[in-house]
Amino acid sequence: MVCFELLDPFTTAIEYVDGLDEYKERLDAYREDLIREKARNKLLARKLENRKRTKCSHCTKMTNIKIKEPTILEVRAEVEGDKK
Questions:
Q1: Positive or negative torsion for Cα 22, 81, 53, 55
Q2: d(CA 70, CA 76)
Q3: Contacts (Cβ under 8 Å, ≥6 apart) of 38
Q4: With contact defined as beta carbons under 8 Å apart, do 21 and 15 qualify?
Q5: Phi (first) and psi of residue 66, to 5 degrees
Q6: All residues at 6 or more sequence positions from 48 whose CB lies less than 8 Å from its CB, including other chains
Q7: Cα–Cα distance list, 67 to 31, 70, 83 (Å)
Q8: Ordered DSSP codes for 29-51
Q9: Could you tell me which of 44, 41, 40 has the C-alpha nearest to residue 66?
Q10: In this predicted model, what pLDDT tens digit does every residue of 34-78 receive, in sequence order?
């Protein structure tokens, strides 16, 4: 674009709206990512809340518990539960 160039108002408005649409799509995708991450973190916090160590069935010593990452289905169920 050159300074003092005459712009077509309709074309300019269309380009502006297209830019806003792309920005909204990026924001929506970011929002969905945040919702999934929040649900994942809530699941992990719930799993860690009560149990951090347990007694080994082989040696009877206290050992740390390995917490599995939540599955996509568990995260999706958590997201759906938050929306209700």
A1: negative
A2: 10
A3: 82
A4: no
A5: -90, 120
A6: 67
A7: 26, 9, 26
A8: HHHHHHHHHHHHHHHHHHHHHH-
A9: 44
A10: 998 888 888 888 777 767 777 778 888 888 777 777 788 888 887
**Rounded Cα–Cα distance for residues 28 and 22 (Å):** 10
Query: How many Cβ atoms sit within 10 Å of the Cβ of residue 70?
Result: 19
Q: What is the C-alpha to C-alpha distance for residues 52 and 80, in angstroms, rounded to an integer? A: 27
Coil, helix or strand for 52? coil
Other CB atoms within 10 Å distance of the CB of residue 39:
20
| Residues 6 or more apart whose Cβ sits within 8 Å of residue 1 | 7
